[in-house]
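Data deposition worksheet. Section B asks for the primary sequence of the deposited chain exactly as it was used as input, without tags or linkers unless they were present during the calculation. Section C holds the resulting structure in token form. Section D is free text for depositor observations; keep each observation to a single sentence. Incomplete worksheets are returned to the depositor.
Section A, Depositor: J.P.
Section B:
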Amino acid sequence: YSDFQCPYCQRFAQQTAPRIVEEYVKTGKVRFVYRHFAVIGEESVWAAQAAECAANQGRFWDYHDKIFANQAGENKGGFSRDRLKGLARSLDLDQAKFDRCLDSNETLNRVQQDTAEGQRRQVRSTPTFFINGQSVLGALPFEQFKAVIERQLSQ
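Section C:
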């Protein structure tokens, strides 16, 4: 569970996730699923919606990476709807389709469902991970994730 405005989520996305993807996801050992926990503010919700609009065009992970690369503090205008549209433009998404999606709140329900699911699972902070049901809290170094993943894979 992650919030696009969370600096610890950014650290995980930029430093740890690529190593997990390379070593475990690409080898088919692990499936990595992103869930929104958009709780920091309105811009968190907009960013999550925008990522889902990009997902509708098959570009969730590209947009995810672009959002984290452009994080600018919490609720300071960094993820206004106009800026989010600009990020889509920089990725050459179908701009008209993206804009319609974001402006109509087409993906809001998806974001709200993820956040509600996180609340039911007692997520209290971001990032929070569940590895075969075991919760792992925080932007831990790759080695700590590796230890938990290896332990789960050996069971």
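Section D:
The mean pLDDT is 97.
Strands lie at 128-131, 134-137.
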